[in-house]
Specification:
By secondary structure, the chain is mainly β. It has one domain: Sandwich (Immunoglobulin-like), CATH 2.60.40. It contains one helix and nine strands. Strands 1, 4, 5, 7, 8 and 9 form a six-stranded mixed β-sheet that branches. The protein is globular. It starts with 5 loop residues before the first helix and ends in a 10-residue tail after the last strand. About 12% of the residues have low confidence. InterPro entries: Extrcyto_LP.
Length: 138
């Protein structure tokens, strides 16, 4: 039988907690509608309210020289969680410049994020994923 000291148990417990909490953001789903970008988690097992029944959505241009600066943010309180597309967070399309990469972050109990560009192809708007490290879509 192995005996662990209180200090060893504390170190193991702290390590396990830090490892479990250090997961990166989860993927955020987005779809394009006529007047808005629709953001939702599509992950019922990982989508839960925080203690205050609020969540935040942030949009920022992907900018590696000037750092993260939100161009749009909104707090939601006591509304259905954006798990399915029907309950998505609606971000006005006017918040996006064409061909510019944006980070969209949904902060609930966990963090969900994605990087997108809104592009025009044959007079029709669509969402694309920019290449890693790129700040625009071509």
């Amino acid at each position: 039988m192995i005996r662990l000291s209180s200090k060893s148990i504390l170190i193991l417990t702290t390590g396990c907690l830090l490892n479990g909490c250090s997961q990166g953001p989860l993927p955020l789903e987005v779809t394009l509608h006529q007047d808005y970008v629709c953001a939702f988690t599509n992950n019922p097992k990982k989508t839960h309210y925080s203690f205050d029944n609020k969540f935040l959505i942030f949009v920022a241009k992907a900018d590696y020289t000037n750092g993260y600066k939100s161009t749009y943010e909104k707090e939601y309180s006591n509304v259905p969680l954006p798990i399915e597309e029907k309950d998505c967070v609606k971000i006005p399309l006017k918040e996006f410049e064409k061909n510019v990469a944006y980070d969209i972050t949904l902060d609930i109990y966990k963090t969900f994020d994605t990087r997108i560009c809104v592009v025009e192809q044959n007079n029709k708007l669509e969402i694309r994923e920019p290449e890693p490290g790129e700040t625009s879509c071509k």
